[in-house]
Amino acid sequence: MQKILIVDSTLRDGNHAIKHQITKEVIRNYAQGAEKANTEILVVGHGNGLGASSLHLGMSKVSDKEMLSTAKKELHKTKLAAFAIPGFATLQDIDMAVNEGVEVMFVATHCTEANVSKQYIKHCKVKTYGVLMMSHMANADELLSQALRMQDYGASGIFLMDSAGTLLPNEVRLNVSILTSDLTIPVGFHAHNNLGIAIANSLSAINRGASMIDATIRGFGAGAGNTQLEVLVALLHKIGYKTGLSIRELLENTKIIEQLKGPQLISPLSIMSGINGIFSGFAPHVDRISKKYNVDAWDIFTELGKRKVVAGQEDQILEVAKSLV
Predict the structure, then answer these.
(1) Do 274 and 302 contact (CB within 8 A), yes or no?
(2) Does 110 share its domain with 165?
(3) Which of 60, 70, 293, 322 falls 20 to 30 Å from 78 in CA-CA distance?
(4) pLDDT, block means (10 residues), the chain with 325 residues
(5) Catalytic amino acids?
(6) 310 and 249 in one domain?
């Protein structure tokens, strides 16, 4: 069977799970473990990527530059990667990341706004993947149209991101099938586990031709977390796929994350996020604001879903809560 590229985003998406407070020590230790496990690509940074540390989105404990340089010192075979969302990240941020040793860049946009990635993808001097976030908010034909744009800009591959953990396996199969049939570059998938089917959705993507999966150790990530990397790899090996990863070393690396946070649970907030198609990272903000204004989180998520808000529009949580008082 074909080889599946597993991208490890534990030190990026996982940062959401602890309010972007990952320390240099954790980065150093985890990077050492990732190297031992033969990880091909390790993504490091603020949950929302380069330049995203802010009061609005959450302040990082460690700067982008420090996070990248700390990880790079421990990596030899493993390629260091960074994540960039135009509007949060600048071209100068990308240059800084490359200067710190980043070899792979992920440029992410809302699923209908691939055009804003053009300047960024063309600017990158390293291997660059395009990422279409909140992919449930566009149909398969529109996703293909957006992916083709990123391919034309020079992307080496396209990742569909189920940022709200709301897609069903049949929807994933349809979206991935259309992309793999019409693109000339590899297709990948990034799942969230809000409805408990991140593993199933990742397998569905692979069954329709996706050759890359973005995952995290212990599912460490925003909301209910992501596809649990070590579980997925064990399943893929059992089925017969190759990943090049050492399951034994991956399991050793779970101990580092276990010290930061217990198992990623599917909380009521995560379920509300999933059924309303709201970015997983909204959950802690909705929780805090609902308690402050004594408004039911269910009502807030329902209204946010009607408004079809996306990452970066966290200010609407407060606006909605006040309107419901």
Answers:
(1) no
(2) yes
(3) 60
(4) 94 95 97 98 97 90 98 98 97 98 98 98 97 97 98 98 96 98 98 97 98 97 95 97 97 94 87 93 92 96 94 89 93
(5) 16
(6) no
